[in-house]
Amino acid sequence: MFEKSKLHSAILAAGAAVLGSQPVLAEPRQIEEVTVTATKRAASAQDIPVTVQALGEESLENLNVSNFDDYIRHMPNVTSGGRGPGQSSIYIRGMATETIATQLSQANGTAPNVALYLDEAPVSIGGRNLDVYVTDIERVEVLKGPQGTLFGASSQAGTVRLITNKPQLDEFQLGIEAGVATTKGGELSDTLESVINLPLIEGRLAARVAAYQSNEGGYIDNVAGTYTPDADVNLAWAGLPVQSASNEDLVEEDFNDASYRGARVGLKYAINDDWEALLQHTHQDLDADGVFDHDPENVGDLEVRRYFEDSLEDSFDLTSWTLEGRLAALDIVYTGAYLDREVEQSMDYTGYNDVGGYVAYYTCDYVDSCYDPTKGYVGLVENTRTSHELRLSTPEEYALRLTAGAFYEDVEILDRGNFVYGSIVDLGFPQNYPRGWSPDSSDPNRATAIDPGARPAGVAFFNDITRTEEQLAFFGELSYDVTEKLTATVGLRHYDIDVKLLGSANSSFGNAGGIDTDQYGDNLDSKWAGAGIDVPLNESDVITKFTLSYTPGDDTLLYATYSEGFRPPAYNRGGGNGNDTTTVPYTVTTDTVDNYEAGWKTTLLDHSLQFNGSVYLVQWSDIQTAVFDPSVYFLFYLDNALDAEIRGIEADVTWLPTDNLQMIGALSYNDTEITRVPGSAVNVAPEGSELALSPPLQFNLRARYDWTLAGYDAFWQAGLQYSDEAWSSIVVQPNDRFEQDAYTTVDASFGLREMHWGAELYAENLTDERAELFINTLDNTKRITTNRPRTFGVKVTYDF
Questions:
Q1: Does 519 reside within a domain?
Q2: Residue 576 DSSP code
Q3: Are 79 and 695 in contact, with CB atoms under 8 Å apart?
């Protein structure tokens, strides 16, 4: 991150003019070559028949990328839906449907269809992206299209990989970066990052430590107001003496601040000339207050009214280890990882008063009193993940090449989510216990409760759910050079995956504290047994990939690929509930993806121009999605609800018109269409509709110019990003599908550098655009996740 080279990745900005004195550069520049491991082998991104977009270390630095939102917005054909740091889902090539409420994402959400990796460790769970701060990162790789044969479950639409810098055995490095920024109408932000690489035993042992702290100032205000349930909005309140709620204790300007604090420590040991070992540990604390979506229609620009505390504490520890070497002619790699992540979150849920069919029952005595209508959610999600992979590769120079291996992982998600209605204390509701046991019994189902004790007073509903996935897979990719120019590749993965959902979903609906009854809640253990549903839910299959690649010359690669992807099946927490028209399915199967694509990679004009791209057709069947039916206990539930097709094209270009000016552009176009909606599907968009969060056109453009100014290396750069309008959801009831406006953002920067020191001035969102990144009604109030307002900053770096 801190090591500057004379190569600067950049993207064309239309109409950019040359500034300053005549350039003086020591040697002609070339396009930065980025090495990726998209095929489980290290290779130049230009040399592999895989559609991969990579931001190298130099590009990440030039783009001021610091977190998830930053790198996503610089990659066309990659979008996200979410409500703030660590609360998003990633989508690639328009393969998106919806984003389920964060409060339910672990208890009753789909698995992601884009896998997120930190180095070799899979780290994704539904609805809660691991928002790793981008410091001392070698590159970010985005592999587009199904990558399931090599990267497994959830690589159904693609894979995003963050690759860290590793210890260097014989090189001392020291880097420090500090910065401060001011946001229009918001608080100051500041960052401090450092990295040190220490050779400990010459040629044998080295350590690398990266540490960071970033405080991102808020820019959304929680403004004063009152909330009164309205019978015109929800008939449940008709004829009742309603009471208002006030948020005066929570009023605060710029209340959505966030901080990232963490460190990564790595040790590399060269065992001998053929073998080396790597051990790394990363710890990060992400703290965020407030919300990152605003309510411009009902409250005001960058304003909301919240009646219950909104806060997030998201901490993780990731330990990974790798042993690699050579055995005869084979390259052997064993890698493993253990992730321990804990998320504590509190959020306002008062908007549920506007849709809950029985909500007045929990607030009023139906005689003469209604109590405080404030409602909130307080949750704790714990995620542990252990993974192991052993693979071997034959030499690259062989005409017949094989990469093969075995993969095992064990994932556990513990979800304790409490829905707090203070009014139930006034109404005399008893405290609630997990379903299926009582304090005076030895019911064996008690063993599946995470917390078997009574919930705090005021908890009207809660989930106490354990969700697990265990997977064993064997994979292989075989390539054969049919001729010197034509290569055929076959990839296979056999997977066997077990999924469990245990515990209970509970309510205080008039029974004795939820004890020993399933009348108003579900003890999932007994539910599955009573319905004849197997626990665990098992799915086993083989997915395939076929590629033909052709190199008519040294600087041109053409390829065609057919590939498949998968993600785990799932249970429905409310399976079996229903009415005359709807029955919630107990389980949903994996959705199937057939991806057909043809791509090209070219290097032209004496290596001063690269032009890459691909066209594709995606047939997506039995799509797993969350739907809503207010007639079934107001439940969100999962269904294999529809089929869709996506036709698209994506391209990127890098051009060096002179030794000093570099231009890069990238675009994507997607035509998404829902092709089938079965009669059992409820409240989803009709056939012919577009998928959600799938803008037809996206592009970014940037230019960077380097020259010498008064003895310093100087640069300026400017760029823009554009995204078309998109639909927010495929769910149409109740009023969940909104068209998000198109938007354009503009950034610029200027900097100076000498041998060890550098300084940069930058501006982000120069036009102060309010991008509609995601419109949601996830807590029954329409709000818009938007980007940070106009921000100016300065950063200073020192490298030794």
A1: no
A2: T
A3: yes
